[in-house]
Amino acid sequence: MLELRGVAKTFQAGGANEVRALAGIDLSVPQGQFVTIIGGNGSGKSTLLTAIAGSFLLDAGSIRLDGRDLTRLAEYQRARWIGRVFQDPTLGTAADLSIAENLALAAQKGEGGHLRWALGHALLEQLRGRLKELGMGLEDRLWTPIGNLSGGQRQALSLLMATWHEPRLLLLDEHTAALDPKTATMILRLSEEIIRRGNLTTLMVTHSMQQAVNLGDRLLMLSGGRILHDFPPSEKRWLRPADLQELFEEVRRKEQLDPSAADLLAAAYI
Amino acid sequence: MTLLVGSLTIGFILSFLAYGVFISFQLFRFPDLTVEGSFTLGGSVFAVLLLAGMPALLATLCAFLAGCLAGTVTGLLRTRLKIDPLLSGILTMTALYSVNLLVMGRSNLPLLDQPTLFAWAESLGGNGTVQLLGWTVSGPELAALLFASLLALVFAFLFFLFSRTRLGTSMRGAGSNPQMMRAQGVNSDAMLVLGLALANGLVALSGCLLAQYQGFADIQMGIGMLVLGIASTVIGSALVGSGSLGLSLAGVIIGSLLFRMLVSIALRWGLDPNYLKLITAVFLLAVLVLPRLFQRQRKSSREKPHA
User: Fold this and answer.
1) How far A75 CA lies from chain B's nearest CA (Å)?
2) CB B164 to CB A79 under 8 A?
3) Is the residue at A120 inside a domain?
4) CB B171 within 8 A of CB B188
5) A96 lies in a domain?
6) Which one of A76, B120, B271, B296 counts the least CB within 10 Å of its CB?
7) Given CB atoms, is A94 within the 8 Å cutoff of chain B?
8) Which of A259-263, B12-16, B229-233, B299-303 reaches the highest mean pLDDT?
9) Which domain holds residue A129?
């Protein structure tokens, strides 16, 4: 269960480039729910995910996961319960380390034993098994530096690493946006399978309305750092991409007017 | 032959410097100028403690720890106070110049006839000469070389083992991709501080061993050491490649030895020692640029095969 209360963040506060990225977000996501998040550029959708992951501290509000208060914890401390896949495939893996070493880092997450071997015999066997399930032939290339792999392969491994120990919350930040359509479909299918199998609580940001409609149980639409629409499972089922397109157009029309002009218009027409 | 043995000994001693620079510059991509100060720090701390009557082995350990402390300062400046990497190193380096003068009390401390580790090693070599592959080598010189090579090789092996532990892997991961390591629950800032501490500890150890071998510690001994370390690691990876961890670690020693040989050959040919740093810089530039030029040549000749 993820609970956000009044989550707010302003970047460059007081400066000329002040950006109100999150303007008070309240959100409760029950255990096992898969939420897709859409919104235009600068709507705060990616910022919301980085706020939950802890890349920066909030100006106001609180973040709780399974009753645990994460608000003041550092990013690496929250990572114990949160798995994360980035948009950029190079961000999720360490290019200079081999496939096996990268996965070993994910496997040792949250464990001590700093001076034990990173890669024991049993772990190697386990790695081979998991890699085989991906069906990409990577189980035969354990010692290849990850930097030599394609974006799609790296993203598949990022996903595997983020969910190695089933996290209490999975954050997917446009994780197929940088891939070609065929690879993107493959990664999406893999994500869905992992999420369903582990019944993982998931937030997935996407720019694709098709994905937003087809995946997940619940859909959020963000604008100006607020939740503009929240479609629960009962309503989301009937949503079509065209409906979302219409909502987007509406937002765009509103954003093009400055607030005082919008008030005048509203007064004249209503 | 004496020249060759001497330069190999220094090459092995400076391989500790090269490992330090390998950690900060290659693993963490951190241009750590602290090296210039911590190299001298190793020499000065050792010299003062030895002259005060401390056993050489213990004084060497203290020199290593002093270097770790210097690296920690730079690491904390970077992670806690968010100071630019280059500037954090410059700050610590500048401060260390005064620290070194304070420690030594003057700009040069002779260690001749003192019970240093190298004095002990040379005494094991006796007074005679040894016939080696047809050359005559003095016993003490050879003993010093064996001692230095043993130290360097044992360390390289231990470092290789450390790199394969969970902590070592996390450290390398944090150097390669700190964002990913935070997402995997590792404090990447702590890893950087640890890496810089270890790196500068090794640099100080190198300075301390060089002071013991040369028989003096000098305030100027750290100047140019960062470029020297980078040159060694770059030559190493150019020669051996960086395909695997073991290879790149072996490359560091090989690079350090080769570089030292080139320097002594240049001096043998009558190079004015005043030009040494200039030659070092030009040489590093060549090592950095030449492989790229070769690649371009190869590519352009592939594009027009009949030209």
Assistant:
1) 6
2) no
3) yes
4) no
5) yes
6) B296
7) yes
8) B12-16
9) 2-239
Ordered by start, the domain boundaries in chain B are: 2-222
Q: Which residue has the tokens 């010692």?
A: A143
Between the alpha carbon of residue A135 and those of residues A92, A97, A198, the distances in Å are 20, 21, 19
Give the separation between CA A21 and CA B105, rounded to whole angstroms.
Answer: 57
CB atoms within 10 A of CB A229: 16
Q: Over the stretch B101-111, which tens digit does the pLDDT of each residue have?
A: 999 999 999 99
A chain contacts of residue B175, beta-carbon cutoff 8 Å: 96
> ipTM score of the complex?
0.87
Pick left, alpha or beta for residue B115 (phi over 0 → left; psi -120 to 50 → alpha; otherwise beta): beta
Contact B184 A79 (CB under 8 A): yes
Tell how far CA A236 is from the center of its chain. 19
Burial class (CB within 10 angstroms; exposed 0-12, middle 13-18, buried 19+) of A114 = middle
| Helices B2-21 + B188-214 axis angle, to 10 | 160
- The answer, for A50 touching chain B at a CB cutoff of 8 Å, is no
CB atoms within 10 A of CB B291: 12
CATH number, domain of A212, equals 3.40.50.300
Residue A270 in domain: no
pLDDT digits (tens, 9 = 90+) for B226-284: 999 999 998 888 888 767 788 889 999 999 999 888 888 888 888 888 888 888 888 88
User: Are the CB atoms for A145 and A95 separated by under 8 Å?
Assistant: yes
pTM for this prediction: 0.90
pLDDT for position A268: 62
Per DSSP, the residues of B67-93 read HHHHHHHHHHHHHTS---HHHHHHHHH
Rounded to an integer, what distance in angstroms lies between the CA atom of residue B193 and that of residue B88?
12
Q: How far is B175 from chain A (nearest CA, A)?
A: 9
Q: Which residues in chain B have Cβ-Cβ distances shorter than 8 Å to A92? A: 180, 183
Number of structural domains chain A divides into:
1
pLDDT at A40 over 60: yes
Give chain B's contact residues with A (Cβ, < 8 Å).
164-170, 172-173, 175-177, 179-188, 244
> Cβ of B170 and A93 within 8 Å?
no
Identify from B159, B171, B177, B244 which residue to disrupt to test chain A contact, counting A C-beta atoms within 10 A and taking the largest count: B177
pLDDT value of position B125: 83
